[in-house]
Amino acid sequence: MHFELLDVVDVNDVVIKQRPRTQIHAESLRHRAVHILVFNDSGELFLQKRSMKKDLNKGLWDTSAAGHVDAGESYDSCAPRELQEELGVSVAALQGLFKLDASVDLGMEFIQVYACQHNGPFVLAPEEIDEGCWLSPESVDARVAADDPSLTLTFRIIWSRYRQS
After folding, report:
1. 95 strand-pairing partners
2. What's the Cα-to-Cα distance from 9 to each of 20, 23, 29, 34, 157, rounded to whole Å?
3. 161 phi and psi, to 5 degrees?
4. 8 close to 19: Cβ distance less than 8 angstroms
5. Distance between CA atoms of 39 and 43, rounded to whole angstroms?
6. Per-residue pLDDT tens for 41-81?
7. How many Å apart are CA 52 and CA 140, to the nearest integer?
8. Whole-number Å distance between alpha carbons of 58 and 93
């Protein structure tokens, strides 16, 4: 894993210092992330299977693209960067959906969730993603309702909130 410097934030998501990613995770410090839900023209959601090389949630299915907000970076500039890095695409418009407060279940991350439309093809970053697939919203609903252990907890929380809105 390459060196990442991230902002550490307080309970109000205000930056208080910067620390390396490894230290932030080891000490469970609050920090920032983005998650992007990519839908195709048929309304299906693209899910990524996290690489077995990842340190957290390896081999589990997750949102289309996601990542940490770098030190000094905004949520809105991080989201398109993560789409490009993980899926090899850029989109004309990213819609901000909602923000989740940092919690233990979310890895102490404040998460800004976005949605966009893209039909692929994608160029999956091999160090991040082992594979991907398109699923109907109803199929995702069923898997989340069943607490499918092959889905990350973060994705299940995000999807449940998305479907409530």
Report:
1. 115
2. 13, 14, 8, 15, 21
3. -65, -40
4. yes
5. 6
6. 999 999 999 999 988 899 999 999 999 999 999 999 999 99
7. 22
8. 29
CA distances from 1 to 33, 49, 91 (A): 17, 18, 27
Question: Looking at the domain 32-164, which fold is it?
Answer: Nucleoside Triphosphate Pyrophosphohydrolase (3.90.79)
Taking the C-alpha atoms of residue 92 and residue 117, their distance in angstroms, rounded to an integer, is 9
Pair of tokens at residue 43: 């309304």
> Model-level pTM?
0.96
How far, in Å, are 45, 71, 140 from residue 8 at the CA level? 31, 8, 32
